[in-house]
Every structure is written in structure tokens, then in C-alpha cells.
Design a protein that fits this description.
The structure is a homodimer. The first copy, chain A, is mainly alpha-helical. Helix content of chain A is 58%, strand content 5%. Chain A contains 8 helices and 2 strands; from the N terminus they run H-H-H-E-E-H-H-H-H-H. The first copy, chain A, is elongated, with a radius of gyration of 23 Å. The first copy, chain A, has a domain of 121 residues: Winged helix-like DNA-binding domain superfamily/Winged helix DNA-binding domain (Arc Repressor Mutant, subunit A, Orthogonal Bundle). In chain A, strand 1 and strand 2 form a beta hairpin. Chain A binds a DNA duplex through helix 3 and helix 8.
Chain lengths: 177, 177
DNA sequence: TAAACGCGGAGTACTATAGTCCGCGTTATG
DNA sequence: CATAACGCGGACTATAGTACTCCGCGTTTA
């Protein structure tokens, strides 16, 4: 029927991690390796979320991304629009006005208002968008959280910390020339 | 967001003409020229509608397509699925199981059931499909019919007949060698 | 019997998606 | 204070899907 891009999938998964991280900045590289997805591709997605005001970026060494708002106030619809850019479901080509019996000059009754087919598609799109608008990051994060054992958030924090330590170790290995 | 293809747009417009034609077969070429769209492209769409049992084809000189069922029993959803082939809105890549802390062997709690993000997308898709399923060819044809003047169906039949006559004329011109 | 039909395969042009690689300016830290 | 870790943006590539076209086959009917 249509396509929610991989970018949207990646983006939402990452935002869910940012909910867990609870205001500690996470870099796009960390987020990518934590989830086994492409770091360079993920790096193209986050600026869009930032421009949409969903996420806040901080530069520099310990920088990264944090949610710009409470997860209760971030809907799936917003995220999808931020990443994919509000492409309409249906691109009406106004075929009704091209009817050969009009001979190039369609009468007003044929071209007035919204095309009936287009109208149906607009309703279908609205249904989808309404469903997406009703779903929030906080809601989904909660349902994910219910499935995970209590120790899981701790494991995540440990993994993230371990990465920072490893970076320190690499530095020590390279530095004492 | 997603894409309803041009094929769907063309297909529905044609089916609406078949409602007007009321069981007189219309060829894909006639349908194409009546609406100012590509005949060769339209010819690729109709076999799909035929395989889906929406339309019935008759071969030979005065052949063409007729609706296989009453327009009240043909939903937009059926048409879209027939032409585009039931592609899902969202293609879940099961990222939840790739989390680095699982080390390649995700636990059952992480992979069981439907991914929460996927579940949201499935609900959104269902909303859209439900809207499309509620809309029938007859319903839309009626709303189109209300806009057109009473003489319009007659004009259409005249145009269609004129095409057949022209073909006869071309034949007469070529035949008496 | 030839022109008008439907059907299917092959091929083309264009656009979007998914992804990579690079260099820039910024910032914390050893 | 240099460097490595950050975000950001531009340029690039490969693949796939969309929107077509063209051709030839078998059928039908005037």
C-alpha cells in the first residue's frame, strides 16, 4: 500500500532509548551500535528530529541527543512527519477534468471542489494520521518497559558506560608515544 | 507518508466509467482516450482487476471490460489491493532483538509477540484500510453522478459510439482497393 | 481475413530509498 | 592545548520501484 521508511523505524527506536536514558545525552553513534544499525545512516536522521523540535542536540565530546520535550507530548505522527516530511498518501492528477468530451475546456461542475476519489483517499489518510497522533512515545515506552526485567535499564547504562571506558583505554594505548 | 500509485488512480477512474457504462463492455483503449491517459499503461492495470474478480474481460472486436459484480459490492480497499498487491505500511526489521547487550542471543521477553512500534503501525494501517473498505464504487459513482448534468451520460455514449463509427470509416477508406 | 480486442514479456527513464564518506566547527578532557 | 568525540551538511553510490513503451501471441467478430 504505502511505505513507512526504515528511517522512521530507526528514528522511533532511538527515541524510545532516549526515553530510557532520561535526559542523559546519547550520541547517534552509541544509539546505532546499541541497536546494530548503520551509524552513518542514523546520523542523517537525527538532524531532522532536531529541526522538528523533538530532540535537542549538544555538541562536543560528551554531547549527544536528549528529548526536547516530555515523551507524553511526542506523538508518532510528529515523528513520522519530521522524518518523512508530510508526503500525502494520494497525489490527485485531476483526471476528471481531462475527459475527452470536454475537449480541453472542462466545465465548472466537473472541476469544482475536491475530486471524489481524492476525497476518499484524504479520509483514509486522516484515519491513519489520527491513529498515529493518538500514540505517544511515553505510551509505547511504558508498554516496552513492562516486558523487560527490572535489571535491564541497569544493563543498558552499564553497556553505555563501558563504551566510554573503552574509548579512554584506546586513547591511553595511542597517547604514550 | 506513503504512496497510492497512479495505477490505483487510473484504475478507480476507469471502474467509475464502467459503472456508468452499465454492462456494455468498454475497451482499455477507449477508457484511456476518454480520460486522456496512456493506453499502453492502462492495459497493464486491467489484467490485475480481472484476476481479482473485480472486472470481467471479453476478447475479440467488440470486447472489453465490464464490472464482474454490482458496484455496491466493490470496495476501494479491494481495488487498491488488486492493483498494488497488499504491501504492508510498515516493514518491521525486528530491531528490538539486535540490542547489543543481548550479544546476538536475544531473550524471549525481547522478541515475543509483536514489536510495540510495529503494533502501532498495524493499527494505523488498519484504520486506513477500514476507511477504504467502507467506501464502495457505487457510493462514489452516485456522488459523482449528482454533480453532472442530466445530459452528460448521453454525451458519453455518443462519444463512445462516434469512436466505433470512425473505425468503420477508416476501414471503408482502406478496404476498397 | 483483418482489425479490434485481451494478455504477457521485455525493456527504458526517472525518482526515491538506504547507505557511505568526507570535511567543517564545536567542546570536553587528559 | 591538542585531540578525540560530538553534531552538521554536502556529495556520492547502488538498488529498487514507478510509470511508462513496444512487441507479439491468441481470440473474436463484422
Amino acid at each position: 500500500m504505502a511505505q513507512m521508511t526504515t528511517s522512521v523505524e530507526y528514528g522511533i527506536h532511538c527515541l524510545l532509548w532516549l526515553v530510557v536514558a532520561d535526559d542523559t545525552p546519547l550520541s547517534s553513534r552509541d544509539l546505532a551500535e546499541l541497536q546494530g544499525i548503520s551509524p552513518s545512516f542514523l546520523a542523517k536522521i537525527f538532524p531532522k528530529l532536531e529541526k522538528a523540535g523533538i530532540v535537542h542536540a549538544t555538541g562536543g565530546v560528551r554531547g549527544g541527543y536528549r528529548l526536547a520535550r516530555a515523551p507524553e507530548k511526542i506523538s508518532f505522527l510528529e515523528i513520522v512527519d519530521a522524518i518523512e516530511g508530510r508526503k500525502p498518501l494520494f497525489d490527485c492528477q485531476e483526471i476528471r477534468g481531462r475527459c475527452a468530451v470536454f475537449g480541453g475546456k472542462p466545465p465548472a461542475w466537473a472541476t469544482g471542489g475536491v475530486c471524489s476519489i481524492h476525497a476518499v483517499m484524504l479520509r483514509a489518510e486522516k484515519s491513519m494520521r489520527d491513529t498515529l497522533a493518538a500514540e505517544t512515545l511515553a505510551g509505547v515506552a511504558k508498554s516496552v518497559g513492562r516486558k523487560a526485567p527490572a535489571a535491564f535499564p541497569h544493563d543498558i547504562r552499564a553497556w553505555l558506560e563501558a563504551r566510554v571506558s573503552k574509548r579512554g583505554a584506546a586513547r591511553k594505548r595511542a597517547a604514550p608515544s
